[in-house]
Structure formats: structure tokens, C-alpha cells
Design a protein that fits this description.
17 helices, 482 residues, alpha+beta, 4-stranded mixed β-sheet
Length: 482
């Protein structure tokens, strides 16, 4: 694969009576100022105090750290700041406050406009000087949390609004990408929509959403993320087909799943849909690749890395390529995800009468890795274009003033950094189940299971169940093995 980088033009050098300093010092100052803004640490390292409190479950302290950051609204990570505040307030049970932050994040994501000045500066420094716009799956998860908040507040109409927003966002994502080998459809989000429609009595839309989720789990998730169809989804699809009166569909799915539908729900019972947010999603870091800049005949330039078999041609005239000098070896930084493996591999939910397995519905860790992999060639192309522009500028400055050129090159090398920003309070994965419970207060046991099959912890949870209603509960264990 040999994608072409966008063509660039070198500005002609203008000499002045005062010498080269007047020409190049403003450029040097700009690079130095931008370097100070971007910094050398990753986004995770900059959020260390907050992350420590959040991972330890000290949510009040985590909220205090976020609230005390007076410059957060002026930084280029405002979206992440709002989403982190939304998660913390959600976990504290402050659902209205959580939704206020998430709604502001949603509006910010919807109104995102590229700043041409920032984009130009990013080609000189690094992408961290631009406003963070959010990954598609991150923007979808805003609605997950908002829907959970509205459900806890008893506002099912507002939860349905989030379903409609989700549907619009999913359609836009599907229209944007046609490649079936990339993340373009979200099975869990369709499943969530079905669960909410189901809870409000809209069984027709619930059936459609469940059926869409089934298709995506089978066609995309099993192949891209190793996530099969949750057993609970099969049961929900059978139940919704029965309630809508789709007898033929019910019989077809019964035969396909090998499950016989059994009507349930007595008048003095209610259903509990329990979501377990397990662990923490990956953090973004960076890795570097050394490229050799090779100049061929007619001014052709190539960035070559023989170890990885990478060759990126850069269109340039012979005059422009001359500004890069002879054979050179340069370092280019690219983003990568680092997994934070959850401490627990699975969980069971126990009531006085039964035990239910929690089924994996979403693997956000795998979605994140796939999303970055989908655009990795574009990331490489942008990074190499940035380096080519900076290297050419350095060579032209050196011809006028060796000292200034050396300083420019040093600052540029230090400023070379990948975009390491991402939403780091998302869970690693989401599991869920549905359980029929008697009306009133129920004492539940959440058994957290290690990879070896042993139960590590058993947590006691109380839940008031309204009869003839779908009740919801979600619980986050941020424990990781690193």
C-alpha cells in the first residue's frame, strides 16, 4: 500500500536587509510557543491525579479534581473534560448533573468545526494543538449514559429521545463508511435501543432493534471483535416477536436458536435489566517508527521503513526535495492504544430464587483498537506530511543561519508527538442480563469472577422492584490488572 501524501508547497525565502533572523525568528517563536502548549506528556499522564482517584473509587475526590480545573473550558480537551464529569456524576448518583455535562458534550460534538489555523499549526507541531473531536464510538456512548440517567430519574420519554438520537448517529456512521471490515455499525447500541423500547411498551420498535442487533453481532461483532450474540438478546428477541404477534418469526428464531419461548412475568413481579460496566477502556499512548528519507530522480521523495515494509511517496519538485538534503533518518510518532485488562473476567447476579449469568454485550476495548486501525494509514500520511514540511523548513533555515536552523530542528524533534487523547473513564466492556424479581426490595449478590473461574468478590446490592415494570440498574467496577 502506497498512499500519496497531500501535496505541499514551500514558501519562497525572502531575504531582508536585517538578515535571516527577521525571516525565521517568528517561525521559530511560533514552534516554541506551540511546543509549550502541547507539552511532552501523554493525556493520561496529564490526568494522573484524577485517574488515581477514579480507579480507586474515590469518586468525590475525582469530582473535586475535575471541578478545580479552572482552565478546562479553555483547553482543547474540553469534550473529554465534560464526558469525564458526566461519568463521575453518574456514578455518584447525581443523574441530572451528569446529564447536564453529557448534553453539553453532545452539543459540542455536534457543533464541531475544523479550525484551519489549528490544522495548519498541527502540521508544524503535532495534532494535540487541535480541538479534540471524539471517536465515533465515544460520541455514541454519551447517549448510553444519558439514557441510563433518564431511566434512573424515571423519565422514559427522555430516554426514548436518546434512542432517536442514537438512531440518527448510527445511520450517519453507517453512511460514512461502506467498508464491511471496519467499525461502522454498533450492535450494543441497537440492543440498548431495543431494551428501552421494550421497557416503554413499544414492542414493534423493540423487535426491529433487537433484530438489527442480532444481524450486527453475527455479521460484524463476531468477526471484528470476537463478541458473539448474547444469550439474553436471543431471549429478548423471542419475547418481542411473541408480544407483537409475529408467530412465523417466533418459530423461525426458536428453531434457529434452539430455544423454546416461555412466557413469564406474574402480576406481583417486575423485571430487572442489570448492566455491569467492567474495568476501564484502553489509554492512548504513542510509538515511533524510524523512516529513511530517500530522494530519487526528478525530485521524487520517499519515506521508507524496511522493517515494516512501509513506503510513502511524497510529491515534490526537484527544487523542493532539495530542501530536505541528502539521505536522512527521522523519527515519526503515531498513536496506539494500550489495553487495561480488567481484573474480573465475568460475573453472575444472584437473587433469592435464581442465578443469572451476565452476558457480554459490548467490548469497548476491541472497538477502540479497531477504530484506530481503520484509520491508521491516514494517521501515518498526516504524520509524514507534518515531518516533511518541518524537515524542509529546517533545511532552508539552516542555509541562512545554522544556529537558528539547529534550534528549529531540536524543537521540532521534541515536539513530535502523536495524539494521545481519548475518553479514559469508559469501561473496558459491558455485560448485562434480565431477571424476573418479586415486587419490593430485593437483596442481590453480584459475584465477580476471575479468569481462572474463581469468585473474587461478592457484592451485596439492594434494588426496589416495581411490579409490571422493567427496572434498570447499572454498576461499574473499574478494577484492572495494571
Amino acid at each position: 500500500m502506497m498512499p500519496l501524501l497531500p501535496e505541499y508547497k514551500m514558501l519562497p525565502l525572502r531575504k531582508c536587509k536585517e538578515g535571516a533572523c527577521r525571516v525565521f525568528l517568528p517561525l521559530l517563536a511560533l514552534l516554541f510557543f506551540a511546543f509549550l502548549l502541547s507539552g511532552c506528556r501523554t493525556y493520561y499522564q496529564k490526568q494522573q491525579e484524577f485517574q488515581q482517584h477514579f480507579r480507586a473509587g474515590n469518586l468525590t475526590e475525582a469530582a473535586r479534581v475535575l471541578e478545580s480545573d479552572r482552565r478546562a473550558d479553555r483547553r482543547r480537551t474540553r469534550l473529554l473534560h465534560l464526558m469525564n464529569q458526566g461519568v463521575v456524576q453518574h456514578m455518584l448518583g447525581n443523574y441530572n448533573e451528569s446529564n447536564r455535562f453529557f448534553e453539553e458534550a453532545f452539543v459540542l460534538g455536534e457543533d464541531f468545526r475544523r479550525n484551519l489555523g489549528d490544522q495548519a499549526l498541527a502540521l508544524l507541531v503535532n495534532p494535540n494543538v487541535t480541538e479534540y473531536r471524539g471517536e465515533p464510538f465515544e460520541l455514541l456512548m454519551i447517549h448510553y449514559y444519558k439514557a441510563m440517567n433518564f431511566i434512573q430519574l424515571g423519565d422514559m420519554d427522555a430516554a426514548l429521545v436518546e434512542c432517536r438520537r442514537l438512531n440518527i448517529a448510527l445511520n450517519a456512521l453507517s453512511d460514512r463508511y461502506n467498508n464491511e471490515n471496519r467499525y461502522r455499525r454498533d450492535a450494543f447500541i441497537h440492543n440498548l435501543m431495543g431494551i428501552i423500547y421494550d421497557a416503554t411498551g413499544d414492542h414493534n420498535n423493540a423487535f426491529i432493534a433487537y433484530r438489527n442487533a442480532l444481524e450486527i453481532y453475527e455479521d460484524d461483532y463476531s468477526r471484528l471483535f470476537g463478541v458473539g450474540v448474547p444469550e439474553q438478546l436471543k431471549r429478548d428477541l423471542l419475547r418481542s416477536a411473541h408480544r407483537v404477534g409475529f408467530t412465523d418469526q417466533l418459530r423461525m428464531y426458536e428453531e434457529r436458536f434452539g430455544i423454546r419461548y416461555q412466557p413469564g412475568r406474574n402480576e406481583d413481579t417486575g423485571e430487572l435489566v442489570f448492566f455491569w460496566n467492567n474495568g476501564l477502556g484502553p489509554v492512548k499512548d504513542e510509538f515511533s517508527i524510524l523512516f529513511t528519507i530517500v530522494r530519487g530522480s526528478g525530485g521524487a521523495l520517499q519515506f521508507v521503513n524496511e522493517e515494516h515494509g512501509l513506503v510513502f511517496p511524497v510529491p515534490a519538485s526537484e527544487k523542493e526535495s532539495g530542501d530536505l538534503g541528502d539521505l536522512r533518518v527521522v523519527r515519526v510518532a503515531f498513536p496506539k492504544y494500550v489495553e487495561r485488562t480488567p481484573l474480573y473476567a465475568s460475573a453472575r447476579l444472584r437473587s433469592a430464587e435464581e442465578t443469572q449469568t451476565l452476558y457480554l454485550g459490548q467490548n469497548l476495548n476491541a472497538v477502540a483498537f479497531q477504530s484506530l486501525n481503520d484509520r491508521m494509514l491516514r494517521e501515518m500520511g498526516t504524520a509524514l506530511l507534518r515531518l516533511a514540511i518541518r524537515q524542509a523548513a529546517e533545511q532552508r533555515i539552516r542555509r541562512e543561519d545554522e544556529t537558528i536552523g539547529a534550534i528549529f530542528g531540536l524543537l521540532g524533534a521534541i515536539a513530535e508527538q502523536a495524539d494521545t487523547r481519548n475518553w479514559q473513564t469508559l469501561p473496558h466492556s459491558i455485560h448485562y442480563t434480565r431477571m424476573e424479581l418479586p415486587a419490593g426490595t430485593n437483596n442481590l449478590k453480584l459475584e465477580l469472577v476471575l479468569p481462572n473461574g474463581n469468585t473474587a468478590r461478592t457484592l451485596s446490592l439492594n434494588k426496589d422492584i416495581r411490579p409490571n415494570h422493567t427496572n434498570f440498574m447499572n454498576f461499574h467496577t473499574p478494577d484492572t490488572r495494571r
